[in-house]
Amino acid sequence: MKPPAASDGMVVYDGVSKFFPVRARPGREDSAELMVALDRINASVRKGELITLLGPSGCGKTTLLRLTAGLIVADEGRITIAGTPVTGPRKDACMVFQNFGLLPWRTVMGNVEFPLEIDGMGAAERRDRARDFIELVGLGAFAEHFPHELSGGMQQRVGIARALMRKPILIFMDEPFGALDAQTREQLQEDFLAIWSRTGATVVFVTHSIDEALILSDRIFVFETAPGRIRTVVESQVAAERLGGDVRAHPDFGKCRAELREMLRSEP
Ligand SMILES: Nc1ncnc2c1ncn2[C@@H]1O[C@H](COP(=O)(O)OP(=O)(O)OP(=O)(O)O)[C@@H](O)[C@H]1O
Ligand SMILES: [Mg+2]
């Protein structure tokens, strides 16, 4: 198979492998055994696409996301973003975490404006922008609240607003809605899709949930485990219904879900 060319996509994975040392057993402290967390990942994410990484626990989803975000380094192969090899975190990319990662001593405004404060932007300008994004995620009335005064769903809205502050071209999300109850999660999925469609950003989104993958994705990278590999890439049959429509009501939703469940269940 021809390796993907850097020009093919926004994010291109070219033979990417990652190994981790296996914790030495007593009496084998000198062991240099390695486990293969990711095995020769070849894939490409198109500009403006929303991709989900779907697979069982331990298949390497977070590892691939961290490699893409430049937080850790691949042992083999390379990742390019817009044709440039990833060598560390980029200012035009951002990360949204499952546990929100907010600063508890700062208000909503203080958290959202934080990235641009670090960048040295003047207070008036960054507050104007923060106010726009706080409004966009539906928290206009809560700008002066502290994180502990907000629900989990509201805290993650702050996380999303903060992530958007540098107007990223790439958004990395690691199970961002995993800690939320089902109803809040559905609402945030819907709201995030609406926000994403306005930003034009490319999104790589990690999830365990087949439904979440179907609701959000243009394409789904389905993983297998031990070693972590992309088993297949599934083009969503229901993506056209995502914005404004109800994906779950699509006549093919049940069939797509059953097919994905079968793929995950019949892991070799
Ligand atoms: N820093 C590390 N040191 C050693 N092993 C690691 C490290 N990070 C990840 N691993 C191992 O690599 C494999 C993949 O881990 P990863 O966190 O990427 O999985 P995941 O698909 O995100 O799982 P989950 O769905 O549970 O979050 C696992 O076996 C894990 O134990
Ligand atoms: Mg993970």
What would CATH call the class of the largest domain? Alpha Beta
Please, how many helices? 7
Strand adjacency order, main sheet:
6-7-8-3-9-10
CATH architecture designation of the largest domain: 3-Layer(aba) Sandwich
Count the E strands.
10
Bound molecules: adenosine-5'-triphosphate, magnesium ion
Radius of gyration from CA coordinates: 19 Å
The chain-level structural class is alpha/beta
Largest sheet: 6 strands, mixed
* Fraction of helical residues: 25-40%
Detail the poorly predicted runs: 1-6
CATH superfamily of the largest domain: P-loop containing nucleotide triphosphate hydrolases
Within the CATH hierarchy, at the fold level, what is the topology of the largest domain?
Rossmann fold
Please tell me the total number of domains.
2
**β-strand amount:** 15-25%
